[in-house]
Design goal:
Residues 1-30 form the signal peptide. This protein has 154 residues and is of the alpha+beta class. The protein has a domain at 53-152: Nuclear Transport Factor 2, Chain: A, CATH 3.10.450. Helices cover 24% and strands 24% of the residues. It is built from 2 helices and 4 strands, in the order H-H-E-E-E-E. A 4-stranded antiparallel beta sheet has the order 1-2-3-4. The longest helix has 22 residues, at 2-23. It is elongated. 16% of the residues are buried.
């Protein structure tokens, strides 16, 4: 019983000290003229997104690096067919422009799999060039776009 009472006294003392420190904190102030969004400009998207075919080399390169580096696999993309656009800028015009595509890919294991990907304006490294997000159905080993790459589709 004595230990509980001494513990409660210490807890109350710590709570009072915390409240005292909190009450001495400076009050929040509004932003001054230099801290306002004066002179800051947002992204200026033009809607110029590369074609579906322009991203295939990047998918091939990134797939090979991912398979070799993360999964210790020699699997590579051998070629693409039936490349088609599924959507272009499907949301409001305020969003980052994207072109959604799908293609059939032949792999070095002899199997053909579907690839869903999007080409993103200024989505490359540090905002330079088009970026590409892609998923190979059946080879989404880290489940980033599961199930069956549905999250990579439009």
């Amino acid at each position: 019983m004595r230990t509980i009472v001494s513990f409660l006294k210490k807890a109350a003392l710590v709570a009072v000290a915390g409240l005292a420190l909190f009450s001495m904190a400076p009050k929040a102030q509004a932003a001054n003229l230099l801290e306002l969004n004066f002179g800051l400009f947002g992204p200026n998207y033009e809607g110029k997104v590369g074609s579906c075919e322009s991203a295939l080399w990047k998918i091939t390169y990134q797939f090979q690096n991912k398979e070799a580096g993360f999964w210790n696999s020699a699997l590579q993309v051998a070629g693409f067919s039936r490349v088609q656009e599924t959507a272009f800028r499907p949301w409001t015009s305020d969003n980052i422009p994207r072109r959604f595509c799908t293609a059939d890919a032949m792999f070095t294991d002899g199997k053909q799999r579907q690839v869903h990907y999007s080409v993103i304006e200024d989505g490359g490294f540090a905002g330079y060039g088009d970026g590409v997000e892609w998923c190979v159905v059946g080879l989404d080993r880290d489940w980033a776009y599961n199930p069956k790459c549905r999250a990579a589709k439009f």
